[in-house]
Amino acid sequence: MSTALALLILFLTTPTAQAQTLVEQLRAQRAAVRMAEIVETTGLAIEPLGPVEIAPNAEPTDAASLLFWWLPKSRTPRVAVDSFPPIRPLPEPEPELPPLTDIEWDRVAPSEQEDFLDRFRESLWTVEGMTFRTPLDTIPTPELRARLHTHFGAPTRTAVARGVKGFEGSSYVQFEYWFVVNDSIPFVALDIDGPYGRGLVLAGDFDHEHYLGDLKRDLTSILLGPRPLMPYVDYYQIRERNQWVRTGYDGDQYYVIEIKRPRWAGRRSGTGQWYLFR
After folding, report:
1. Own/partner long-range contacts of 236-241 (Cβ < 8 Å, ≥24 apart)
2. How many degrees, rounded to 5, is the angle at CA 270 between CA 155 and CA 39?
3. Signed CA dihedral, 115, 119, 123, 129: sign only
4. Which residues does residue 201 pair with via DSSP β-bridges, in sequence order?
5. Hey, how many other C-beta atoms are within 10 angstroms of the C-beta on 214?
6. CA torsion, points 164, 170, 173, 179, in degrees to nearest 10?
7. Which of 24, 80, 91, 188 could pair with 19 as two cysteines, CB 3.0-4.6 Å apart?
8. Do residues 27 and 277 make contact, with C-beta atoms less than 8 angstroms apart?
9. What angle do CA 180, 23, 14 make, to 5 degrees?
10. What are the φ/ψ torsions at residue 54 (nearest 5 degrees)?
11. How far apart are alpha carbons 226 and 228 in whole angstroms?
């Protein structure tokens, strides 16, 4: 890999160059990979534009007069200008689709990550359609993590996955739940600011944007259902202080304990193969 390409990837993937929100990071990672592929293929070379053709026998046009107003009329180039094509009428707006009523959530197990990425790696993730507020947006993230665990089981990915697969991608994220809804719609739910946040980051495929509001409402209804919360343990890295913490729920109370950096925390694959947000 060329030095220029390596520097480009380094710039686009450093924390200071990443966008502020997690969903923008997902798009930045996707753009970084795409740019790297373009640089590898073309070396940033583009075809030059062709010269402007001057028709010596053509009569001066209004366009030529405007472009060369500063020249005497006798020296104004004579440019042959093609007429503009007719303006096409705007397409008819697509009819509104009916709301999604029958919703089945299939959590992606940790062992199924690779299959999910093979199928949905090119998804263009978005939060559009889910910007309205629900009670989900006011609940502390640690409680939502327990509710997710209760209803769906363990997360698809946590920081500990670095020690298992050496994945790279989703830095400074405590947990990730990946779903396939109704066998076709990819959907993710991630923490906000680890154990210190409220609500969840929810994102879905842009191609299914018209259904994402229905999915948020349904997920809110599921997570607010009355069920005993299950204990869990996670690890989280605080970006500002580069401090690791162990956080979770012991069945009685939530806790956050500062710890030394785990031995597995620095392991990375170096290939980008585990990027969720590509």
Report:
1. 236/159, 236/172, 236/174, 236/191, 236/194, 236/195, 237/159, 237/171, 237/172, 237/265, 238/172, 238/194, 239/15, 239/172
2. 115
3. negative
4. 190
5. 19
6. -80
7. 24
8. yes
9. 125
10. -105, 125
11. 7
Query: For 163-218, what is each residue's pLDDT tens digit?
Result: 566 555 566 789 999 999 999 999 999 998 999 999 999 999 999 999 999 999 99
Distance between CA 78 and CA 55 in Å, rounded?
Answer: 6
Give the three-state DSSP class for 257. strand
Element (H, E) at 71: none
Angle between helices 3-13 and 22-42 (to 10 degrees): 170
CA-based angle 175:177:181, to the nearest 5?
A: 170
- The residue type of 125 is W
Tokens representing 55 are 């028709």
* CA distances to 71, 83, 113, 120, 148 from 116, in Å: 64, 51, 5, 6, 19
How far apart are the C-alpha atoms of 21 and 249, rounded to whole Å?
Answer: 26
Tens of pLDDT, residues 42-99: 666 556 655 555 555 545 455 555 555 555 555 555 555 556 667 777 777 766 777 7
What's the token pair of residue 172?
């400074």
Residue type, 272: G
Transcribe 117-186 into DSSP letters. HHHHTT--EE-TT--S--GGGTSBHHHHHHHHHHHH-S-SEETTHHHHH---S-TT-SEEEEEEETTTEE
The SS3 of residue 213 is helix
